[in-house]
């Protein structure tokens, strides 16, 4: 079994089985699932750095390559979420299937694919102008800074800000934000993809 296959299986088992099994019903919390819908952003970055470095023979080749990497990462993320939902139901079966709201799942999936493509294009630009290794290093630093910022913000936020934040972390609010974010990112993706395709061809 090749290393990439083992890596994928490890990610699916860890985030799609072990974490949901430990969290149980908390895995179906909208905030937890919203974080899971962002997983493809992290998953596509290393692949995009290698797949989109250098020049391309045609603009269509860049478009096709970018979409394939984004779809692969998004598909893997959806498999992880589906595995998590199955794990929670199998571990705590009460005679009926527990599922998040359909609109919430649709919004999360739409935002996830749009965000994955945006991450692919950002990585592609970095890999093209620098190198795949530099692109991966920059993205790791960006993810680390964002993580530290979120931790510091959570610890230093006022009670009023915290209460306001959690009021927006409901299923209806996250659903609305997911659809809105997906629409905005789709426009950004279309513009960035057209520029990236021209840049790689030149």
Termini separation: 39 Å
* Share of residues in helices: over 70%
Strand content: under 5%
| H/E element order | HHHHHHHH
What is the 3D form? Answer: globular
Mean pLDDT: 87
Structural class: mainly alpha
- Number of structurally distinct domains: 1
Please give the radius of gyration in angstroms. Answer: 18 Å
The count of DSSP E runs of length 2 or more, i.e. the number of strands, is 0
* Main beta sheet: none
Unreliable sequence segments: none
Question: Could you explain the architecture of this structure?
Answer:
The protein is an all-alpha fold. It has one domain.
Helix-strand blueprint:
Layout (H helix, E strand, L loop, with lengths): L2 H21 L6 H8 L1 H13 L7 H33 L10 H28 L2 H25 L2 H9 L3 H31 L1
Helix pairs in contact: 1-4, 2-5, 3-4, 3-5, 3-6, 4-5, 4-8, 5-6, 5-8
């Amino acid at each position: 079994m090749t290393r990439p296959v083992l890596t994928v299986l490890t990610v699916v088992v860890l985030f799609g089985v072990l974490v949901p099994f430990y969290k149980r019903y908390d895995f179906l919390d909208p905030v937890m699932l919203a974080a899971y819908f962002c997983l493809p952003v992290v998953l596509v970055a290393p692949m995009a750095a290698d797949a989109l470095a250098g020049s391309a023979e045609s603009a269509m080749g860049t478009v096709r390559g970018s979409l394939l990497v984004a779809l692969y990462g998004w598909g893997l993320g959806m498999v992880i979420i589906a595995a998590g939902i199955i794990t929670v139901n199998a571990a705590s079966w009460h005679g009926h299937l527990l599922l998040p709201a359909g609109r919430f799942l649709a919004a999360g999936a739409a935002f996830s694919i749009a965000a994955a493509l945006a991450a692919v294009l950002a990585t592609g630009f970095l890999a093209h102008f620098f190198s795949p290794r530099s692109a991966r290093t920059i993205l790791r630093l960006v993810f680390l800074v964002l993580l530290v910022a979120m931790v510091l913000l959570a610890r230093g936020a006022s009670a009023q800000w915290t209460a306001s934040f959690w009021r927006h972390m409901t299923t209806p609010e996250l659903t609305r934000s997911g659809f809105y974010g997906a629409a905005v990112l789709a426009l950004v993706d279309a513009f960035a993809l057209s520029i990236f395709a021209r840049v790689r061809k030149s």
